[in-house]
């Protein structure tokens, strides 16, 4: 299943753009995404997975780790 992922910082919602993201992993413990967004540990983000213009999954998440793309 090919889905598109989008990420947006919540506290900046009025001015923060929605950015495309790549989902690297989804597990019971969280979601690993790669995106061109300036994030810090503790930031709250909204992550949306969309396929064929239909929302598959939408969630709020707290950033707990930031690292280089693998």
List the helices and strands and how they pair.
Layout: E1 4-9, E2 19-27, E3 30-35, E4 44-51, E5 54-62
Antiparallel strand pairs: 1-2, 1-4, 2-3, 4-5
Structural Rg:
12 Å
Query: What fraction, in percent, of the residue positions are helical?
Result: under 10%
What share of residues are in beta strands? over 45%
Overall average residue pLDDT: 85
Order of strands across the main sheet: 3-2-1-4-5
Shape: globular
Low-pLDDT stretches: none
Q: SSE order, as H and E?
A: EEEEE
H/I helix tally: 0
Taking the alpha carbons of the first and last residues, their distance comes to 22 Å
Can you summarize the main beta sheet?
5 strands, antiparallel
Helix/strand/pairing category = mainly beta
Structure description:
- The protein is mostly beta strands.
- It is built from no helices and 5 strands.
- The protein has strands at 4-9, 19-27, 30-35, 44-51, 54-62.
- A 5-stranded antiparallel β-sheet has the order 3-2-1-4-5, with no helix packed on it.
- The mean pLDDT is 85.
Give keywords.
70 residues; mainly beta; 5-stranded antiparallel sheet; 0% helix; globular
Short characterization:
By secondary structure, this protein is mainly β. The protein is built from no helices and five strands.
């Amino acid at each position: 299943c090919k889905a598109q992922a989008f990420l947006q910082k919540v506290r900046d919602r009025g001015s923060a753009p929605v950015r495309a993201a790549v989902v690297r992993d989804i597990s019971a413990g969280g979601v690993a995404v790669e995106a061109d967004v300036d994030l810090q540990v503790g930031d709250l983000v909204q992550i949306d997975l969309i396929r064929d213009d239909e929302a598959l999954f939408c969630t709020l998440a707290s950033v707990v780790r930031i690292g280089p793309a693998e």
